[in-house]
Amino acid sequence: MRGVRWMLLALHLVCARATHLAPMPCDSKSVEKLALLAMTYINEDRQTGYKFALNRVFNAHVHPQGPAGKVYYLDLDILETKCHVLSPKSWKRCEIRPFMETQISGNCNTTILHTTEGFSYLYSYDCTLVPDPPEKLQRTCPDCPLLLALGSDRAVSAAKTTLRRYTQQSTLPMRLTLDTITRASQRTSPTAAIFVEYTVQECSVSPVQEVLCVPADAGKGPIGFCTGAVFGPGTIQMSVKVSCEIFHPQASPVALPLAPDGHALTFEDAKQGSLQPLVSSHPSSSPESSQSSESSEEESVSSEELVGSERIIRPPQDFRYTALRQKRQAPGDSQPSPSPAFLTVFPGTPSPFRSCPGVSRYTTV
């Protein structure tokens, strides 16, 4: 009898250990694949700002949940890219914000549920990013532009000036208006300049005056993203440069975007690959359609990854985890579907593995 008790106690300890939170190596194949997939999920879920790029896995924990699957807690180091979140381009193909433009970096505490069927769901994420201090930038690059308040008169004036230039020379069958300034910076030497980045909306009708523009499809959000620069001190504008990317589908023939110097590109330029194609679907329409922006590209995370004997698959519908409502169980019915348990506090225990933090994917100053 005593031997049976010891066996039951040992079995209980083994089962308890199997369901406890445990650290994982940051270079584990499953961790790497889940980190890439989590980065894709986060970028698809966000509606404002710029896409993030995964730099490295800082820490990783797994919490086995038995028949409910496994819950992964991934601490990810990230960098801001130059792609707006509405851009159809995959974050893997986006350019990292360079040091000369004030690099922005941070981390995302990400919780992923990996079910026994192989589906990986995004449960939660909390991202914190900070820009490099201006003192650090000025020590290395005294002539580099410094960040400017988004609502400042200089930023708003530069955005309107560059958009006006684009509208004057664009062949798009629509009129655009300023939506939101997403980034602004200025420099004083060697030539004074203000650099702006902003989203644009479409006017319902072509207004006679810019102030009379009424955004079309109110509540649908921006349809494009522009970057511009105004060179010259004060009110003296020596030159204006602007380039816009339109996300919204067009029923009219494809319009030629403007080159950085404000001139329309020729078809010879388009043959060389400089023409930005207009996408055929709106990236912010629904969770199902948003999959086309990040996951349809060959270099993005594939729909199914084999990691040893474990599959990592993107769900066919929404990638966000939602708890299922438990139905009333009639007498004789089978057991209800198991529900995973999530920690209320994100684990911050230092990893015992030498592979954590992981190797950086990008070189930063």
Fold blueprint:
Blueprint: H1 2-18, E1 22-23, H2 29-45, E2 50-64, E3 70-84, E4 104-114, E5 120-131, H3 134-140, E6 146-147, H4 153-169, E7 176-187, E8 193-202, E9 224-231, E10 239-246, H5 267-271, H6 287-294, E11 304-307, E12 310-313
Antiparallel strand pairs: 1-2, 2-3, 3-4, 4-5, 6-7, 7-8, 8-9, 9-10, 11-12
How would you describe the overall organization of this protein?
- The protein has 365 residues and is an alpha+beta fold.
- The protein folds into two domains: 17-134 and 296-313, Roll (Nuclear Transport Factor 2, Chain: A); 145-271, Roll (Nuclear Transport Factor 2, Chain: A).
- 19% of the residues lie in helices and 28% in strands.
- It has six helices and twelve strands.
- The protein has helices at 2-18, 29-45, 134-140, 153-169, 267-271, 287-294; strands spanning 22-23, 50-64, 70-84, 104-114, 120-131, 146-147, 176-187, 193-202, 224-231, 239-246, 304-307, 310-313.
- The strands form three sheets. It has a five-stranded antiparallel β-sheet.
- Strand 7 and strand 8 (193-202) form a beta hairpin.
- It holds the Pfam family Cystatin.
- Residues 274-294 have a biased composition (Low complexity).
- Keywords: Disulfide bond, Glycoprotein, Repeat, Secreted, Signal.
- It is found in: Secreted.
